[in-house]
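Now for one record.
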Amino acid sequence: MDCTIIGPKLGLLRDRIFMVTRTDGTYICARTFPKLLLIQPSFDEQYEQMTLSAPGMPDIIVPVADLFSVDPVKAWVWGQPVTATDCSEELARWISRFVLKEETGLRLVFYPLDIPTRPVRERQHVKLTARDTGALHNSTSFMLLTEASVEDLNRRLQKPVTAQQFRPNFVVKGPGAFEEDDWKWIKIGETVYRNVKPCNRCSVITVDPKTGVRSIENEPMKTLKTFRMKPGLETPVMGMQMGIRTEGTVRLGDAVYVGY
């Protein structure tokens, strides 16, 4: 996998380059529409075409290669304007039918650029720069979590979770629980990253990615709040947000080197 300033990349696909919006261009996510997690993508061998599948819906094809030449539309992430192209009326109907059970209301948009375009939103994190904001990411284009951190959390939960619930780009095996909090520099394969901020968590982590159902007990958020709060943050921390400083290739099983 190639890791670039915009995020992980395979062929034409990069991390978080698709976004569901309302018809006015404001983004939505699984915080308010948990059913979004039930939409499953699959790809052709060249990563030039994506197929979306969802329960009770016919599969639909997204012609990724064609989306770079579509006229731009207005879209916003956290109130910040972003460059985007609209995927099609057909895909808008498909998304609206599945999520809203309506013919209209939502659209699917695509980020066509190879560079970040948004300014830093969380200015209290001095290491975070505009080059780290990625495509349509909340904070940065890379997030890392250790396997031991998930295991530590699971020892405190009645119902265990997986790393997938936290949506990391990298899961590191070997270090102790939450050691990643103290890493400043990280080298994986050919790439080098800066730890720019802790990953403070929202309610998406309470939604089971396999079922799209939110935890009645508000877990694992409830438990994380008992031991993973950090000064100046309103929600608990799990993992770290990284900015890439040297682009390159990363492979499954690569050694991870860290600096403190």
